[in-house]
Amino acid sequence: ADKYDMSIDFALYKNTSCYIFTQKVKPPNKSDVVVDEMITWFNDQTFEVVARNYSLSYSAAVYDFKVQMEVVMTKYGEYLVPSLIRYTGNWKAIFKPRERGVFTATLFDFK
Fold it and tell me: What is the pLDDT of residues 60-89, one digit of tens each?
């Protein structure tokens, strides 16, 4: 916790009243952590996760990566499941070429 600035706010997310919890790495700690930033929207009535954005990165002698993800959740019966996943990332391992990936997955019609 000492490596991050954290805050709590309140706002609408797609017409749902939410608490927003934000965690951002403090600048001098950038090389010590993997999670650069994470923002989570919690339904203010149920405290269920409505959505979360991740920004992850790390650089070491034999590999490095930088990844951003957005995940939107929905209810299916009693379960909380992802309805949207967006991913953008690149990574490099020693002796391998850099790889990049971008995709969006929309999940629906759960049975």
Answer: 989 999 999 999 999 999 999 999 999 999
Separation of alpha carbons 88 and 103, rounded Å = 7
22's CB contacts (< 8 A; 6+ apart) are 6, 7, 8, 9, 37, 38, 39, 40
